[in-house]
Amino acid sequence: HRMFRRCIARFVSVADCEAKLLADKAISPSKVAISDVSGGCGSFFRVEVDSKAFNGVPLVKQHRMVNDCLKDEIRELHGLTIITNVAK
Question: Which of 8, 9, 21, 73 is the most buried if burial means most Cβ atoms within 10 Å?
Fold first, then answer.
């Protein structure tokens, strides 16, 4: 039952993560998509963020910007794939 409660907590945090990214003034994303790619358990997520703020910024720094924004939310995750794109 403990594992199930952890999964539920992670699913609830997906909406929080999306809201936090959308509200982040440094990133100001035009698109945020977060999906559970762990088969439904909530231990591994894919985060895709499109933003004009990524223009001219090295990929590593783009990913760091996303990590910094979500640092509190992603502590409990087993894995995270971040995909960033420069918005047009």
Answer: 21
Sheet holding 44-51, edge to edge: 31-36, 44-51, 79-86
pLDDT tens per residue, range 8-65: 444 446 778 889 999 999 999 999 998 888 776 677 889 999 999 999 999 999 999 9
Q: What is the phi/psi pair of residue 31, to 5°?
A: -150, 135
Phi, psi of 77 (to 5 degrees): -75, 150
Cα gap 57→65, rounded to integer Å: 10
pTM of the predicted model as reported, rounded to 2 decimal places: 0.81
The dihedral through the CA atoms of 76, 40, 83, 28 has a sign that is negative
- Over its C-alpha atoms, the chain yields an Rg (Å, rounded) of 13
